[in-house]
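Ticket opened by: R.M.
Priority: normal
Category: complex prediction / small molecule

The reporter submitted a protein together with zinc ion and asked that the result be attached to this ticket for the collaborator who will pick it up next week. Submitted input follows.
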Amino acid sequence: MAVRFFNTLTQQVEDFSTQDGKTVRMYTCGPTVYHYVHIGNLRTFTFQDLLRRWLRYRGYTLNHVMNITDVEDKIIRNAMQQGKTLGEYTEVYEKAFLEDIDKLRLERPERLVRATEHIQEMLDAIAKLKQDGYTYVSDGSVYYRIAQFPNYGKLARLDFSGMKSGARVDVDEYDKDDARDFVLWKQRKEGEPYWDSEFGAGRPGWHIECSVMAMKYLGETLDIHAGGIDLTFPHHENEIAQSEAITHKTFSRFWLHAEHLMVEGQKMSKSLGNFYTLRDLMDQGWQPDVIRYLLTSAHYRTKLNFTMDGLRSHASSLERLRNFKLRLDSEKFPEGTNAQLMERTATALRDFELAMDDDLNTAGALAAIFEFIRDANSAMDGGQFPAGNREPAQALLAAFDSIFDILRPVEREGGLSDEAIDALVNERIAAKKAKNFARSDEIRNLLLQQGVILEDTREGTRWKRK
Ligand code: AMP
Ligand code: ZN
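Result attached by the on-call engineer:
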């Protein structure tokens, strides 16, 4: 069964394939590094991480490029206010972005590329568009004439009949649903950073960087282009207009868009001020694995409402998952194999895979795992879970965790490593044997202070992190 994705371009769920049968040429729009990213942005990046992992699970190799937008209106404004160069201003937020995605266990793309390092390629692309009649100059800036591109609007499926001919826009953020000629090269403004070029001193508009960097590293036709739903129009529509005007080829075969993270019915966004950064939540004591779990739990094409209650319930459900793993790994089971339970495990794996194949239905995939856990727990309670069933169940959890990556607790900074904990646990066992109860109690308390809980069971001592 093939992996299937909802393609924004066709508005249909389609079987996925790649051009060469193996490597996925994937481009995703990365962050604008003018501030810390918020967890709404991180929802979209987490979706891209799941996408990467599922494609790899299904045998594909990834060639994934993500851009870093490091020249843009807000960046310029803030850098100028602080008397910094663009690079000085953006490096702080780029570094913070990388730290945040590491904390959330998001895999790094094969290539992360900065807009400011591709200015010449952008100028070459604009020159080509000019040569083919897609541009005009107004007030010293170069614009893309969308009336020249008959397919304009094919991604967003908007009706442009009421469009004002020649209406143009030169800011990086503008009204949705309003088609305008967009700027490719902006004339320099007094005091702003600029590059010299055949179009005069200036700097690129926002859209051209993605067309140029995607095609430079991935070729003229991508397999997947992804981003948040708000990028569909105008950003992705403009990327298509630029790229396809240059190549006369399909720019991307699949377009995948993640829905928004919401707060009280509104999109989480910096401009509305209703946002949390990962740092805000961690300062309140939330661990990034709980946040990752929350962000992965809903299907990427549904809106996800962010609440503290949601975080709390995900924290306890994550605890259930981990308790089950601990039980599965450490409990002593009766000898033998239960064929029915074997079948149950295989069904759970199949349901998990079918759900993920079905446009990354993470909610369905989680349901398959939780239903299995419920059945396995009650089999264990009734002494009906034989030792021969342990390994297949562990393999199921490993498959699940190769995608969700939440079962491993966060290593506390400066905290104890697993090895150090094991060593202390062994020392405590030896101390108890030697009837040195003062030392054994001391070790229990010491571990507790580090957030490690010991449980003495008939089978011996096991531990878990709080
Ligand atoms: P930006 O840095 O603003 O270009 O945004 C980076 C990514 O986050 C883009 O793919 C946006 O579509 C996405 N994004 C912005 N706000 C949200 C939100 N509330 N929920 C999910 N994704 C978002
Ligand atoms: Zn882009």
